[in-house]
């Protein structure tokens, strides 16, 4: 996804480490790093930390003096890596690391250029696992399973512990091979003002008007009622709104929808981490994982009733319950608005905002530093059924391209493992709050901090988290297909087209790309193979996706008490 924001967080840079020359890189620098930066905040014992660092010192010796370039999008976690961990790694290993921070769209563009040209632009990329279908089909990324057992075995950390990573399923292809290694993860969840929802007068007023309890909405029907209830109310001397979103026709509008909005409404099929045979993009695959259609006429669901319903609700809520200026905002402009104190709830809220939402002195934080807000599982739309995914999880993941020379890939792989190592990961997670390891999530330090993080730890420790996942393997060329979304859905957001017209145009545009890939044959027998078109009613009458239009798209609203929800997880 697009860069979350540029933070003002003060990240301590280890200036002293910069004085250690590459020629003298050894355990002295590692021990200084462990003492000054990690300072006991690790899931490993002191002896285990030193053992990991000694391994890096030894493994890096053949690559001392090399200049290695890696790239990622600009979020807090990657800023910490670039400004603190990269200099530390250079001091410890003697490998000179440049960790560039650019926009997420620029990361994809650089990766695409390297794939097309074969030129080694970067030695490693942290790119979203949304590209797993691309990497598996084009076979231009090194399968890490093969790499760790073969060419990269001598530079693979013995204590890497792949099973400890919570997102490995997201970065594994249908062939069972691991293509990417998660570096950071965050979900899009439901965000709400816990203090307002707990207020006795608000609770009584809501119950009197709607006949059920104000609480965390389980479905979109309740979300809509809550949005209506709060919009226009005056709380603490200010007018508040029951919803927040953004609507400007801009690239950031695209991943607002590709990031699982359609599946939250109920499109696609059941399945974890993604629906099969139809995923949350509405793309159907056959038994060989070949994409066979996007439009209903070919068995897809991009323009099906559930998808059109999702766009209709998005537009209605934006127009009726969000601040008037929201329709003209892009993601980066809309993101900070809930922290300003006039928003009651937000359906589509990324947990990567947590660090900005807990800063002292802002309107949504109490004087004692505890948040006035909470995060909870996203409510689901009218077409959603148990067993479907319920939201999106970003998984920025290390990717090694085959076009990178072996020695350079080995040096970059050492850095990649350093920044996700058990020695480092707990401290990194406390800085960026983007979790990749089970051992980190379960650490006592996060139990101690949980009350200040608005439900983040409770969610990541809960069984619910498996319903949040990135784009899956049905998408055969993420760069080509993703750009179609903002252009077409932007027409619906602006009013130029109806939701049905916009989704019809989107599915047709996706099928044109699938058709070109099929004709080119560049993805072999796992590339697209489009179905013949049939009367849409044929597919709508079949089990699973696409589903026929519901007679009632606003079923009985349901809410749950937040505190009872958290207890149920425990």
As a percent range, the share of strand residues is 5-15%
The count of domains is 2
Distance between the termini: 32 Å
**Biggest sheet layout:** 7 strands, mixed
What is the fold's blueprint, element by element?
Blueprint: H1 27-38, H2 46-59, E1 67-73, H3 76-93, E2 96-102, H4 104-117, E3 124-128, H5 132-138, H6 144-149, E4 181-192, H7 194-198, H8 200-210, E5 216-217, H9 220-230, E6 234-235, E7 238-239, H10 251-258, H11 261-265, E8 284-285, E9 291-293, H12 305-321, H13 331-334, E10 345-350, H14 354-357, E11 374-376, E12 393-399, H15 406-420, H16 422-432, H17 438-441, H18 444-449, H19 456-460, H20 478-494, H21 499-520, H22 536-540, E13 559-560, H23 562-569
Parallel strand pairs: 1-2, 1-3
Antiparallel strand pairs: 3-12, 4-10, 4-11, 4-12, 5-13, 6-7, 8-9
Helix pairs in contact: 1-2, 1-3, 3-16, 10-20, 20-21
Please give a structural write-up:
The protein has 570 residues and is of the alpha+beta class. The chain folds into two domains: 15-179 and 395-464, Periplasmic binding protein-like II (D-Maltodextrin-Binding Protein, domain 2); 220-392 and 476-570, D-Maltodextrin-Binding Protein, domain 2. It has 23 helices and 13 strands. Strands 1, 2, 3, 4, 10, 11 and 12 form a seven-stranded mixed sheet that branches. A hairpin with a 5-residue loop joins β8 and β9 (291-293). α1 (27-38) packs antiparallel against α3 (76-93). The protein is globular. Mean pLDDT is 94; it is low at 1-24.
């Amino acid at each position: 996804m697009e860069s979350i924001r540029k933070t003002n967080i003060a990240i301590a840079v280890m200036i002293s480490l910069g004085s250690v020359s590459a020629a003298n890189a050894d355990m002295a620098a590692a021990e200084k790093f462990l003492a000054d930066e990690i300072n006991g905040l690790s899931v490993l014992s002191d002896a285990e930390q030193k053992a990991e660092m000694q391994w890096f010192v030894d493994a890096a010796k053949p690559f001392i003096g090399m200049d290695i370039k890696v790239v990622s999008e600009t979020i807090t976690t990657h800023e910490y890596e670039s400004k603190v961990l990269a200099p530390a790694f250079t001091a410890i290993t003697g490998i000179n690391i440049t960790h560039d921070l650019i926009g997420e769209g620029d990361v994809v563009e650089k990766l695409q250029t390297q794939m097309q040209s074969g030129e080694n632009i970067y030695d490693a990329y942290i790119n979203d696992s949304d590209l797993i279908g691309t990497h598996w089909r084009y076979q231009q990324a090194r399968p890490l399973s093969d790499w760790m057992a073969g060419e990269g075995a001598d530079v693979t950390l013995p204590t890497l512990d792949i099973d400890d990573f919570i997102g490995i399923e997201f970065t594994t292809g249908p062939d069972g091979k691991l293509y990417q290694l998660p570096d950071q993860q965050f979900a899009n969840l439901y965000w709400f003002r816990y203090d307002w929802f707990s207020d006795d007068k608000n609770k009584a007023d809501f119950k009197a008007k709607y006949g059920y309890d104000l609480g965390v909405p389980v479905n979109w029907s309740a979300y809509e009622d809550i949005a209506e209830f709060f919009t226009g109310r005056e709380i603490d001397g200010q007018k508040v709104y029951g919803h927040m979103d953004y609507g400007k026709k801009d690239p950031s509008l695209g991943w607002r929808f590709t990031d699982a909005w359609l599946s939250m409404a109920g499109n696609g099929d059941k399945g974890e981490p993604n629906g099969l045979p139809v995923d949350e993009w509405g793309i159907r695959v056959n038994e060989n994982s070949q994409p066979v259609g996007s439009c209903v006429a070919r068995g897809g669901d991009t323009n099906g009733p559930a998808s059109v319903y999702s766009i209709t609700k998005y537009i209605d809520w934006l127009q009726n319950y969000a601040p008037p200026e929201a329709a003209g905002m892009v993601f980066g402009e809309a993101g900070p608005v809930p922290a300003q104190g006039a928003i009651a709830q937000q359906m589509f809220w990324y947990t990567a905002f947590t660090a900005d939402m807990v800063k002292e002195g802002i309107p949504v934080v109490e004087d004692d530093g505890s948040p006035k807000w909470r995060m909870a599982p996203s409510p689901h739309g009218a077409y959603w059924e148990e067993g479907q995914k319920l939201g999106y999880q970003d998984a920025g993941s290390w990717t090694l391209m085959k076009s990178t020379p072996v020695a350079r890939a080995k040096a970059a792989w050492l850095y990649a493992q350093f920044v996700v190592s058990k020695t480092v990961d707990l401290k990194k997670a406390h800085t960026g709050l983007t979790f990749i390891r089970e051992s980190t999530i379960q650490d006592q330090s996060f139990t101690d901090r949980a009350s200040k993080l608005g439900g983040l730890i409770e969610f990541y420790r809960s069984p619910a988290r498996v319903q949040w996942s990135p784009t899956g393997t049905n998408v055969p060329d993420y760069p080509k297909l993703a750009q179609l979304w903002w252009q077409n859905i932007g027409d619906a957001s602006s009013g130029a087209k109806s939701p049905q017209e916009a989704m019809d145009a989107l599915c047709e545009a996706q099928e044109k790309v699938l058709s070109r890939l099929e004709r080119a044959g560049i993805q072999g027998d796992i590339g697209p193979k489009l179905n013949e078109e049939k009367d849409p009613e044929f597919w709508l009458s079949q089990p699973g996706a696409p589903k026929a239009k519901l007679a009632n798209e606003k079923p009985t609203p349901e809410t749950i008490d937040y505190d009872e929800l958290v207890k149920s997880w425990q």
